[in-house]
């Protein structure tokens, strides 16, 4: 398996533009997570999905952020309009939930470094 | 709620020194415990885990023992290398928390030759 695949690896955009980040989880995993990492705030959970259904989006900072998972092999995180304070590294992770137990942790992608100028 | 507390970094060591990164947790019951490592420019990678009290997780020379009595999961390595320079995250999964991992704030390790 190629692991969790994120694209693009780097994105530079102008303030006000729409940004779409993409994630392909590991085949067979049934949970998907979006995180944001900055020096100031560390690692923040934005939203997670179980079986393609959003379970908790309380970490999404504001309405400018939205996430979708149309099928088990693809998810997007969209920022519209983008602002300089959105600059961060965005990680996608997937895991296999078996019952109520998480024995194997998460597998993370390599991240998308977003710079909004 | 559940929480994980790690020692603040950066931790700076010379090559071949002994490493300890402290991690304590607050949780009801018996969570599973994890250590993740993040190398520069990469995502987090699972380093080791322990799923019950007194379990010892180990990988790549790193070890951590699940201590229920002290609610700790300290990461240790007997002899660090420059290539171990990274950020280390302690995390827990509470089995009734719907597949969630709670991460600590991370500890940066810098190993000098």
Helix run count of chain B:
0
Q: Segments of chain B where pLDDT lies below 50 for 5+ residues?
A: none
What's the rounded overall pLDDT mean of chain A? 92
| H/E element sequence of chain B | EEEEEEEEEEEE
Structural class per helix/strand content of chain B? mainly beta
Tally of individual helices of chain A = 0
Structural class of chain A: mainly beta
What is the makeup of the main sheet of chain A? 7 strands, mixed
Q: How much of the polypeptide of chain A forms β-strand, as a percent range? A: over 45%
Helix content of chain B: under 10%
User: What Rg of chain A do the Cα atoms give?
Assistant: 14 Å
Q: How many beta-strand runs of chain A?
A: 11
The averaged pLDDT of chain B comes out at 91
Question: How does the SSE layout of this entry go?
Answer:
The complex is a heterodimer of chains A (about 120) and B (about 110).
Chain A: E1 5-7, E2 10-13, E3 19-24, E4 31-38, E5 42-50, E6 53-56, E7 65-71, E8 74-79, E9 88-95, E10 107-108, E11 112-116
Parallel strand pairs in A: 2-11
Antiparallel strand pairs in A: 1-3, 3-8, 4-5, 4-9, 5-6, 7-8, 9-10, 9-11
Chain B: E1 3-6, E2 11-14, E3 19-21, E4 23-26, E5 32-38, E6 44-50, E7 56-59, E8 62-65, E9 75-77, E10 86-93, E11 102-103, E12 107-112
């Amino acid at each position: 398996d190629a692991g969790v695949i994120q694209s693009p690896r780097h994105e530079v955009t102008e303030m006000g533009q729409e940004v779409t980040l993409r994630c392909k989880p590991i085949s067979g995993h049934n949970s998907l997570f979006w995180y944001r990492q900055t020096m100031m705030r560390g690692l923040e959970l934005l939203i997670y999905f179980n079986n393609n259904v959003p379970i908790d989006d309380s970490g999404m900072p504001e309405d400018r952020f939205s996430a979708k998972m149309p099928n088990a092999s693809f998810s997007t995180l969209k920022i519209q309009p983008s602002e300089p304070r959105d600059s961060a590294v965005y990680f996608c992770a997937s895991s296999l939930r078996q019952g109520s137990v998480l024995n194997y942790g998460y597998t993370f992608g390599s991240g998308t470094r977003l710079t909004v100028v | 709620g559940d929480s994980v507390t790690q020692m603040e970094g950066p931790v700076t060591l010379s090559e071949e020194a002994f490493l300890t990164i402290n991690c304590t947790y607050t949780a009801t019951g018996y969570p599973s415990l994890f250590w993740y490592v993040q190398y520069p420019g990469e995502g987090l990678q699972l380093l080791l885990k322990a799923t019950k009290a007194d379990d010892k997780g180990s990988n790549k020379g790193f070890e951590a023992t699940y201590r229920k009595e002290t609610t700790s999961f300290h990461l240790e390595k007997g002899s660090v290398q420059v290539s171990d320079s990274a950020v280390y995250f302690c995390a827990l999964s509470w089995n009734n928390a719907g597949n969630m991992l709670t991460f600590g704030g991370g500890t940066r390790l810098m190993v000098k030759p």
